[in-house]
Design brief:
Elements (H helix, E strand, L loop, with lengths): L2 H8 L40 H10 L5 H38 L6 H50 L2 H5 L3 H43 L1 H8 L1 H39 L1 H6 L3 H27 L1 H25 L5 H23 L1 H18 L19 E8 L8 E8 L4 E5 L6 H8 L7 E6 L2 E2 L5 H6 L1 E5 L7 E2 H6 L7 H10 L2 H5 L9 E2 L8 H15 L3 E5 L7 H15 L3 E5 L11 E6 L2 E6 L1 H7 L2 H9 L1 H9 L1
Parallel strand pairs: 3-10, 3-11, 6-9, 9-10
Antiparallel strand pairs: 1-2, 1-4, 4-5, 7-8, 11-12
Helix pairs in contact: 2-13, 3-4, 3-6, 3-12, 4-6, 6-7, 6-8, 6-12, 6-13, 8-10, 8-11, 8-12, 8-13, 11-12, 17-19, 19-20, 21-22, 22-23
Length: 637
Amino acid sequence: MSATTKASEAAAADRPGTPVKANERPKYGPTHRGGGPMGPGVGTGEKAASFGPSLRRLLGHLRPEIGIVYAVIAMVIIGTIANAVGPAILGRATDIIFNGAVIDGTGIDFPALGDVLLLALGCYLVAGLLTWSSGILINGVVQRSVYRMREQVSAKINRLPLKYFDNQPRGELLSRVTNDVDNVAQSLQQTLSQVLTNIFMLLGVLAMMFWLSPVLAVIALVTIPVALGLTMVIGKRSQKLFAKVWKSTGELNSQIEEAYTGHDLVKVFGRQREVMATFRAKNEELYASAFGAQFISGIIMPVMFFVGNLNYVVIAVVGGLQVASGQLGLGSVQAFIQYSRMFTQPITQLASMANLLQSGVASAERVFEVLDAEEEPTEENAELPTVTGRVAFEHVSFSYLPDKPLITDLSMVAEPGSTVAIVGPTGAGKTTLVNLVLRFYDLQGGRITLDGVDIASVPRRKLRGEIGMVLQDTWLFGGTIRDNIAYGKEGATEEEILAAAKATYVDRFVHSLPDGYDTMVNEEASNLSAGEKQLITIARAFLSDPSLLILDEATSSVDTRTELLVQRAMKKLRTDRTSFVIAHRLSTIRDADVILVMEDGAIVEQGTHDSLIAARGNYYRLYQTQFAAAITDEDAA
């Protein structure tokens, strides 16, 4: 997870009307509103937006492999021809046996029979080899195409604005990126080569049938409109259910991710029954849609078999009459009966693959929704001078929702090397203010400058490369402690990592761990204390050596002794760089150069700690709330 995502979650409390994400505050039980990952009001039953255009777009991902696709088509055509002439050759063998043994009475011409059988064997060997080769090639085409699709989705996620993730349940997004992409791969893998083979087989067999007997071929053709009509009727029903299957899969993943992220709180508040009830409801919804989709699409195969058997019976009867009247030879009728079976087989297989294709297209549409999401605005390419750290807000206006203004006409300046503390009640806009500096969101009015350069004209990567951030919610990835510190700087040397660790007091506790800096951080980082994790994140920021530093409630979850170490580490980190410090514990920002007091998105007071206490305004009341006894003693004196 990126720092961007974490900042989004940290800012959620400041956003009026914005739902808090699943890993911030578990939402269990009947009070959770519909529309979220566990809510009862989630819309269901949506059909795919458009099967045809979505299928064409999906096949468009094969375009870079078009040369191999053409080669596969050529191999399939040749293999189909070889396979299609096989029954006709075997029919000739039957005529040799029948004529020699029954009609002429001269005996069987075994040399001629042997030549015919060898020719048939050669045709089937060529067909089998080409089918096997085309299967290998198409497998590579599909896997490389899906590989590129995964890369596109990954790159797209990095280009999406933070507001997209604010309103997207994490489990649902993960399901689109993993389950849906995998289902697209599986569907293409199982259907693409088979579709090509069966289509050309159908055409080849049909040509051979007309060559042998136009009358019987016309009888066989009657099954095509019947089969297509039944497939279309059943397919429309099942497509809706397949779209619902993958939607329900995403919702179930979202619910599971939410429940297990907040597993401790579920147990603390005794909400296991509610969680299980919600899971059961989602699971039953997925079961019902999956069962319905498979049941309806599964009807196709037996229906096609029934139609094929009727066709087989009619051809056998009419063909027998033609042999009896001398219009056809026995071998020709035998070959035609084989062709009738071969003719219905591709129709049946194409119909049975419809459910796989529908499922794959439904998943592809969910992936396309991510790829089509609105990206961050196009960036300009202004250059930053050597950054000294002067940050100026000039008549800044911003809101998360158009009808709910949060920050209006805000102006302030943070001088180079100064420490700016931001305090205020929850929802005042504190985190929003620093998120705007990071360009996690774009302004609706005014501008923010860094050393006189409008940050909107600077590429986000360059801007954020000058900024270090330490959040209240620590984030460590699965890896060693050394790796987690080195995350702050690409290509960091061992000496730089150790220097950052020593400067931020990480070195003090690392040596007590079994493997020192090579200690593996587990998935939830539960083998480290909250204070240890916080110190590692500070070391990471220290290593990046930023020009601008943002500390967002960096000590709110640690004990007093650890807080003292963290404060010392952050004081070193703030040296000679502009710092924005968001804090609820007012004792931690008494030495700030300027303290901004925010309410309802506006700066209502600013000054030093002493000047704001003397003014007895909003800051004084906040301070008094935390240190009422101390204030009372001062007043009495």
